[in-house]
Amino acid sequence: MITRTILAAAILAAAILVGSAGTALAHKPSDAHLRLAVDGARLEGRLDVAVRDLDGALTLDEDGDGDVTWGELLASSPRIAAYLGDRLALAADGRPCELALGDAALVDLSDGAYWAQPISARCPAAPAEAVTVSYRLLFDVDAQHRGLVHVAGATAIIRDGAPARIAVGGGASFGAFVKEGVWHIWIGMDHVLFLLCLLLPAVFPRIAGRARPAESLRGVAGEVLEIVTAFTLAHSITLVISAVGLVQLPSRVVETAIAISVVAAALNNLVRAIDARWAVAFALGLLHGFGFSSVLLDLGLPSDQLIASLLGFNAGVELGQLAIVVAVLPALYWIRRTLAYRALLYAGSGAAAVIATMWTFQRWLA
What we know:
By secondary structure, this protein is α+β, with helices and mostly antiparallel strands. The chain folds into two domains: 2-25 and 188-365; 31-171, no CATH class. It has ten helices and 13 strands. The strands form three sheets. Strands 1, 2, 5, 6, 7, 9 and 10 form a seven-stranded mixed sheet that branches. The radius of gyration is 23 Å and the shape is elongated.
């Protein structure tokens, strides 16, 4: 009993920590975009880096007023150029290219102002069959930063600073987008908390108007399969229609609605208003699909890469949520008859509702 109580307390603490961490992750991930075209022995393109990220790395806001002005950017432009030049290198077919930076400008993207740095590189190999990009920006400032690299129709996602070899004209890598889907579900704390809220009551179903411990893990697994299938179907529908441009909603509306969906799922655990949680998973999962699609849209993929990226990313999301289910469900089933589980169900759901309510206000007022 003591062991089970300790385990339950650990699960509850983990859920609260997940939610608390999510308040810091309730914004768009840190991305930079490198787009390069191949012209004989030259590479030409542009590197777009968010001003807020450069400020975090180089402290551009000299007067500390929270607003990086154009004057402050101009004054810091030599430092910015040195930072970018030191942390970006290109090679063609394994042979280094001579990198040159042009005159930068500001561009407005969906999530704010970006420093647009023209890139030019003279390479010894012409034409290049593969370009190696050594991208080491911002990882020491934000471990979740991504470098989104597009080279002559091929796309790569750099997360750790390791050199990426990109075949010219190779298109999108299916495996890379599977990994991106897994990563997104694991760091998407609102998605994780929503899934946990759906899983919590599965081992304590209401039968004939009364909640009681489940009699078999097989029966619990069957219900969880219904929930996960409904959630998968729902978010796949909206992921596709949003990614192809049929329906697109403002990011602020989508992120706020996702937070509200976590509140709704958590409150349903407390009052047990809807026992058919597969229906809850489907209805609210439609909102989460719009959130998933924003990740793909941020990559700026060409239309001919969209199908491969959609399939890979969605497969990764499913693998990521399956890993969560496999890790959590047996533990919940093991402690289902204990008072500790009751405390976890009600206290955990209450904590999730409070945290998600905070997200709702943060995202709507951001």
